[in-house]
Amino acid sequence: MQSATDAADAAALLAAVPAGRRVALVDPRFVGHVHALRLGLTDPRFPAATVPGALTAQPEARGALLRALHRTAAAVGAGAPVVEPEADPAPEDRTVPGRIAVALEAEGTPVQRPALGSLVAAVPTDPEQQAAAEAGLASVDDEAVRLRNAVKAHDGFFTTYCISPYSRYIARWCARRDLTPNQVTTASLITALIAAGAAATGTRGGYVAAGILLLVSFVLDCTDGQLARYSLRYSTMGAWLDATFDRAKEYAYYAGLAIGAVRGGDDVWVLALGAMVLQACRHVVDFSFNEANHDAVANTSPTAALSDKLDNVGWTVWVRRMIVLPIGERWAMIAVLTALTTPRIVFYALLVGCSLAACYTTAGRLLRSLTRRASRTDRAARALADLADSGTLAQAVAAVAPGLRGAFTAPAVALVGTLVMVGGALFLPYGSPLTVAAAVVYVLLSGLAVARPLKGALDWLVPPFFRAAEYVTILVLAARSDAPHAVPAAFGLISAVAYHHYDTVYRIRGGTGAPPQWLVRTIGGHEGRTTLVAVLAAVLTHTSDFTTALTALAVAVALVVLVESIRFWVSSSAPAVHDEGELA
Predict the structure, then answer these.
(1) Which residues on neighbouring strands pair with residue 129, listed in sequence order?
(2) Which are the contacts of 71, defined by CB distance < 8 A and separation ≥ 6?
(3) CA–CA separation, 151 vs 385, rounded Å?
(4) Phi, psi (5° rounding) for residue 28?
(5) Strand spans (E) along 7-57
(6) N or C: which end of the chain has fewer CB within 10 A?
(7) CA separation (Å) from 308 to 304, 319, 460, 507?
(8) Total-model pTM
(9) Element holding 122 (H helix, E strand)
(10) Is 569 helix (H, G, I), strand (E, B) or coil?
(11) Residues lower than pLDDT 50 in the chain
């Protein structure tokens, strides 16, 4: 830390700092809590941030900061005001760092102003202000506020009341031993994998151990986010690991339960795959709806207004959060039922609970969309097109048929295609060439659905319809096959494809765009993979070769997707983010 006597001196000192480092300006008269300075000066997610009397800039904002400092120095030398913007968004901060923050915003550099709540951050200019600041400093427990803020503001009932009251102290313990959120995330994954292994034993002792370990894994899963908020150690890699490991843990545990059940003489692989498919489709409904309305212009939905009113009534908030069966409630249910009952009952409960939750959330989203007067942006349409995951076949149809959709809306066309494909897999004789014909119809309708920008009120339904068509078709064809181990092979294939779809979501959320088109084309797009599985089922009817083909396809998709995904996230230049995690 170095001291400067004036703006010109500060500019010279900052210019001497290596270009790749963060810099900060703090008024020497600053009085405040240490955590207030942490919030303003150490959060890696923003190019620039400020609290009263202090300002920080990441390397990407260093140039703008130096320009603002030079202008400040010139203005002071000329006897002019330091900064005179047309509209000062922070008039309470008249210090040099505060004025420079306004100058940065006037130039177009966004400046984060974290909410301090009861924390004190001030630059007193007289004894009265000094006394007030010191009194505020003494009256607030800095560490208590830091611990409280480590907990996510909006979470499920089970997490809020059964996990967070003590997991925040585990987070502090980790921070004091310099453990990183990524290390805790990895520990959560390893614990869940051990739980899956215990469940795979098929013994009562194994099931009890699996349930306990799954709850421990969830505690660690909460702890990693709380550690990130407590220590302000956010990262692009951390957000990706936290999100993808949640899926890996849940799917691995399903597989462990299914293996354990088979060892006990009860084949529940179809139920396990059904639970995974249902959960993945629930998520894509959430993702698509959120992306479609991420930057929608206007929000006049009376349904949304009613929801906001209900959020002001305490008990309804918790009931509504529990209805959607968020991850805390879901994992608690799985853990308890694993320890006390059988894998079949676990999956029945999951299927029933997730089905009810899906109906509730989807109905609410439909009502909001139908009653909302909003214009979707090009960005939203692009995000939905990326989430659709259309491959070469659908894109070729879309290129030659933009005018053929006529009066039919995109979700209507996608729904018809989904019904044709899933209906063919379900009701046509297994191995019939007509199933392949249904797949051809599905390809045509899939291309037709995305032939125009997805800007309609219900166009966010297109990606969920495509996910349901692909996942359910693979499940049904594997289940109807007499090939040994076809359903476990299908479980592996859908896991690999689902990873690709989740990865697409997290890239869009991080502002880096969807995976490259060459990747989507290489793994076939949703319509290409669905058609290929239909062809394999027709050609390799009732033979073990079908299982082999599904396994080979799963390995190929997993290798391509994982290699490209890991390469991207390890080398990503995306800004540091912290995914607050799923509620549903």
Answers:
(1) none
(2) 83, 103
(3) 35
(4) -65, -15
(5) 23-26, 31-32, 48-51, 54-57
(6) N
(7) 6, 14, 22, 29
(8) 0.89
(9) strand 121-122
(10) helix
(11) 78-91, 581-584
Give the Cα separation of 533 and 550 in Å (integer): 8
Instruction: Determine the 3-state secondary structure of 121 from DSSP.
Output: strand
- Give one word for 520, left, alpha or beta, with left for phi > 0 and alpha for psi -120 to 50: alpha
CA–CA separation, 255 vs 515, rounded Å? 28
Position 95: which residue type? T
Tokens of 570: 């390890």
**Cα angle at 390 between 389 and 395, to 5 degrees?**
155
Look-up of token digits 């959320």: 509
At 92 the pLDDT is 60
Tokens coding 154: 């909006």
Give alpha helix (H) positions in 78-180: 96-107, 127-139, 142-149, 157-158, 164-176
Residue 16: its pLDDT value, please?
A: 80
What end-to-end distance do the CA atoms of the chain give, in Å? 45
pLDDT at 313: 61
At 397, list the tokens.
């149809």
- Give the residue from 370, 332, 12 showing the smallest Cα distance to 157: 332
Please write the tens of the pLDDT for every residue from 526-560. Answer: 999 999 999 999 998 877 899 999 999 999 999 99
Distance CA 454, CA 382 (A): 8
Supply φ then ψ for residue 109, to 5 degrees.
Answer: -90, 115
454-478 confidence digits (pLDDT tens):
988 899 999 999 999 999 999 999 9
Residue written as token pair 């102003």: 113
